[in-house]
Amino acid sequence: MGTLFIWLDLIGTFVFALSGGVLAARHRLDLFGVLALSFATASVGGIIRDVVIGTVPPAALSHWQYPAIWLVAGLMAFFFSNGINRVMYPVRIFDAMGLAVFAVAGTAKALDAGIPPLMAPLLGVLTGVGGGMVRDMLLAQVPLVLRAELYAVAALAGGMVVAIADVLGWPAQPAAMAGTVLCFGLRIAALHRGWHLPTALMRPPPRD
User: Model-level pTM?
Assistant: First the structure.
C-alpha cells in the first residue's frame, strides 16, 4: 500500500480505539475492560481483512505502531472520558471517522492484494464494521451496523470510490480522500437526518 493508505489505517486504528474506549468508560468498565474494547474495536476488522487476503501475521499484530496507538487511545479514554464527552458526542463521531478511513484503507489493501474491484469494497466494509460488531457484542448490545442509519452502506460507498478509481486508472490518493469524505459525510448526514434502510414489518403476535 502507499503511504497514504498506511496512514489511513493508523488513523482508523486510533479513532476506533478511542470510540471503543469511551463507550467502555460509559459502561463503567475497569482499566482492563477499557483497553480490551479499545483493542477489539481498533483491530478485529483489520485482522479479519488481513487473514482473508493472506497477509499473516496481520499488521495489527506484527507492527508495533498498532498496539502503541490503541494503548494510547485506550488510556486517553480511561483517564479523560469525561472531558471527551463534554467536547462532543464522541462515540458516534469517532465511530464515523473510523468507519470512513478503515473502509477506504481496507478496500485499497484488498485491491493491492489482488482482490477484484467488485469484491474489494466488501472487504473494506468488513474492515470498517468488524471491530464495532465485536465491541457491541462484548457490551451485550445489538451491533450498530445492524441497527444504525446507513452504516455499512456508507462504508460500501466509500470503498466503491476507491475501487472505481482503480478500474478507471485514476490517481489513488485523491480517490481515497474522496471516498473517506463521502463515507464520513453519509454517516454524519444519516445521524442528523435519520436516514436509514427499511426495517422488516413485523405484525404483533395474536393475543390468546
Answer: 0.86
What digits encode the pLDDT tens for the residues 57-109?
A: 998 999 999 999 999 999 999 998 887 776 656 678 888 988 999 999 999 99
- The C-alpha cell of 145 is what? 451496523
User: Comparing C-alpha atoms, which of 57, 53, 71, 58 is closest to residue 13?
Assistant: 71
Cβ-proximal residues to 136 (8 Å cutoff; 6+ apart), any chain: 142, 143, 144
CA 31/CA 44 separation, integer angstroms: 19
DSSP state of 146: G
Measured CA distances, 134 to 5, 45, 149, 153 (Å): 24, 9, 19, 19
> Shortest CA distance to 181 belongs to which of 170, 173, 193?
173
Burial of 139 (0-12, 13-18, 19+ CB in 10 A): middle
**Euclidean distance between CA atoms 59 and 100, whole angstroms:** 19
With CA atoms as reference, report the closest residue to 114 among 54, 161, 179: 54
